[in-house]
Structures are given as structure tokens and as C-alpha cells.
Amino acid sequence: MIPTPMLRICPAAIACIAKRSISSLALIAIVFTISAQDGFSRPNILFCISDDQSYQHTGANGDPVIKTPAFDRVANEGLRFTHAFCDAPTCGPSRSAILTGQSIWRLEEAGNIHSTLPAKFATYTDELRKFGYKVGATGKAWGPGRLEAGGRTENPAGPLYEGRTLETPFRMMRNTDYAGNFKDFMAEVDEDESFCFWLGTSEPHRAFEEEAGLKTGKDLSKIVVPAVFPDNEIVRSDIADYLVEIEHFDTMVGRALATLEERGLLDNTIVVLTSDHGMPFPRAKASLYDLGSRIPLAIRWPEGIENPGRVVDSFVNLSDLAPTFLDAAGLKPPAMMSAQSLMDVFEGKKPKGREAAYIAMERHDGCRLGGKGYPCRAIRTADYLYIYNFEPTRWPSGSPDASVCARALPYGEIDSSPTKTFMMENRNTHGLADLAYLSFGMRPAEELYDLKSDPEQMVNVAGTREYESTRAQLREQLFAQLEKTRDPRVVGGTVDWDYYPYYGRIRNTGWTVDKKPESEQ
């Protein structure tokens, strides 16, 4: 291990190494340049991630009810991203993409939730640790899944700090003192040691304490109800309860920032606030629509961001964070990392290749017969969302038959909630049937949404003459990206997502994952 935390690799040395054109002593002189000579100091990293939070639910992003002072501060003193998207709207795959800097279709089993993350895939945490960073995590890190199946003995987000607990303001919140555990981690960080910490809350994952929003004084009349949901007191109260849980996450982040300020480390720490995917409501989480895939993202780093306070409209996938962290530390990302560093955005340069985000899903929660998933891919641009569904004969939100779902739930890809229950009970009611179909019904192979006229993505215009050229162009652009990044569903090869083991809790004792037919082996 390299003893000093202030070390970077000179790009010119890499070319010389490849050509073997220099002596060992010259190589050492080129490769290692100390910060005292070039002013370079490796930044610390505090990565804060909530669990199931959509883009619009922060104060800085315009929600009129929620209070998120920590997010708002980071956004105002750093960068606020308006087009940040998860790589997959499902917990484990999204977190795998963040750690590895790769799209989920490149990650084999890790493309499924309740699976594993094979050890052969490099993570930014391991790469930073090799170069002297102290790494740690608290709360919800990589998961859910089984580490040992992938050849790992430790959570890839880092060694877990879980010693502190607290009394939560509401039932159903996890009693982990995330900020207290971060403080314990910081007590172990030496004065000259760089660190990388993952602060992951389980909030606002379901379930919520009902009427928590009302108990905190939230005005239900000011709740913004997405057009895909019925607008009534049940739904408004459910959203208010969800906002309370986000505020709990934000409080933890605020305490963590205070810990950094106390030690004088805040300004040389890359602070990231985001979520793994969108809100746990129908047509949100576990879908490629904006409510499921567009997430909040704010990054603060005064020593590395030019002209802080900017709003960034360029498109970003969360997998871009892994090469960004390594690049900021002066390290070359492993060749297998296919995502794009954000350093050009930090430096205020006009970014290239950021006109679209790419999103995907394979198996979410095992809620179809035989453990089948709902494989789909999407491209999101400023004006359109195009989705390609590889298996349109399958139920996108899980089967209505609870007996074929590992969770024993109808439409089990959607978490149980007052909103879901109301929509299911009224799915044949005039005025609600169309909304219920959008959440629970079948979908065609291709979907296209014109975001200028239909920002909430409710009217599929794929197949109409007016949009045929747009559909064709976006399909070509999506499949070109899938081919470039070697998606097996496009370029051929092993396609085993429907057959990988499922390591989640199975409430139906007879439920199993199908074996792969010999004809496909």
C-alpha cells in the first residue's frame, strides 16, 4: 500500500509504461509527483444516498412542502443536477452500477435485485483503498443480496459501521444513527489520511407510519400529486408520510456535514447527495418512467468545482460517479468502467456526450411465474423518453396472481401502500380506470413519450405517424449504445437474468426460479 494519501499518476507515464521506453528511475520520477510540488491534494468523499426518492422531492428542486436544508445547501454551494438518472430503478442493481461505474447489463447477476455482485467487477471503493484511502459505510450499502455468492466477504461499499442507534421520530424508520456512525468512522481517520464513506439510509423505503405527515404539520392541500395518481386525501397523506422520511435522511446528512466542519475537512470533501431510484409508489419505483428513474443529485466540492452554485442540465447516470471519484483522486479508472467521469462538468467545461441517459431493468422482485423479470431498456433525452420492452407479454408490475409472486402480492413489483391499495380497489371505477391501467396494465414493445406536451409520460405516441421518425431515431440511438456497451440482449451471448438465483425472502413456499432450458444453454 502506498503510504502517502497525496499521490497521483501522471498520464504521460502511462504511455511510457506501455512503450517500455524509460528506465526504472525515470519511471518513478514521472509516475509519482507529490502534492508539495504540484499543489494536488486528494479529496475525501462522503457519498449520501437515500432509498427510493424521486427527483422533485427536495426543496431546491421545487417541492413546496418538504424541508431539506442539507440538500439545498449542497446544491447552492456546489452543483445541482436537473437530469440525473439511476442506471436501474431497483435497489441492488442501481447500487451495483454506482459502485462499479458500469451499466447493469454488463454486470451479470448484479443486474437483478436479491442477487450478488461478482468480485471480478472492480469497485471505486476497492480502487481507492488500494491507494491508501480509509473506506467505510453505514446503513443501507450495497444490497439487498448475498455477498458470498459473488465471492465477496465484505460489503463492497466498505466495512460497515453500525454501533450507534437512536430513537426514531416515527415507527417504521430504521433505528440506525447513520450520522453517529459516520462520526465514529471519522474518529478512526488519521490527520493525514484520505477517506471515502458511504452514508446510506433505509428511508424513504416502505413502510411508513401512516399520518406521520399530518403529525408534523404538513398541509395536505399543498402536496403536489403526480398526474398518474388519483388526487385525494389518501394519496396526499401517503405522499406526506413519504416526505417525512426524506427529511429524516436530510437531517442525518446535515449532522454528517457538521462533523466534517468540526474537523475542518468539509471543503476538501466531495459531498454527494442522491438516491438509488424513485419513490415507492405505482408507476414509479421499478419502472423506467421519470418517477422511477429520475433522481435528485447535488455535489459540493469547493476545492474542485469551478463557479459553484451552478445548475447542470447535462444528462448524468449515477454510474458516472465511480470514475469521477477515481479521476478526482488522480487515479485512472479500470478499463471495465464504461461510465463517464464528471470532472469536465466540475471544471465548467462544455460537456460532450451528455445529451441522454440510459436506463435498464431486468428482474426486480420475483413476481412472475418462474422468477421471470421484465427486461427493458430506455433512452431519456431533453424532449423524449423512449422505452423498449423485450418481453411485452409479461406483466410489467408483476402478475395480478399473488400465488406466482415471491412476495405473495398481486402486482408485487409495486410495494404495498395506501395509494396502491386505493388504486387496485378502484381500478374499474370511472375516472380511475385509466390511471390504474397505467400502473398495473400490460405495455407494448415500444413506448415513446413527448415530454414537451406530456411531461408525466401518460400518452404513448409510439406507432403514430407523427412520431414515426422520432421513434426510429431514438430506437437506433438506444440500440447503438447497447451494442457499444455489449448488452447481451442486443449483441448476443449469455442472457441468464431470468435464471439467476433469487436470494430474497420467499413468502410463497412453492415459488421457484425456472431452470434454463437446454435449448438456451
Helical content stands at 25-40%
Shape summary: globular
The percent range for strand residues is 5-15%
**The CATH homology group name of the largest domain:** Alkaline Phosphatase, subunit A
Order of helices and strands: EHHEHEHEHHEHEHHEHEEHHEEEHHEHH
CATH topology of the largest domain: Alkaline Phosphatase, subunit A
What characterizes the major β-sheet? Answer: 7 strands, mixed
- Annotation field: number of helices: 16
Q: Report, as a whole number of angstroms, the end-to-end distance.
A: 43 Å
**What CATH first level of the largest domain would be assigned?**
Alpha Beta
Rg, Å, rounded: 23 Å
Indicate the topology.
Elements: E1 7-9, H1 11-19, H2 24-31, E2 32-34, H3 35-38, E3 44-50, H4 69-77, E4 79-85, H5 91-100, H6 124-130, E5 134-139, H7 178-187, E6 195-200, H8 212-215, H9 233-262, E7 269-275, H10 290-293, E8 297-300, E9 310-317, H11 321-328, H12 343-346, E10 357-361, E11 376-380, E12 384-389, H13 418-425, H14 433-440, E13 446-450, H15 468-484, H16 488-491
Parallel strand pairs: 3-6, 3-7, 4-9, 5-6
Antiparallel strand pairs: 1-2, 4-8, 7-8, 10-11, 11-12, 12-13
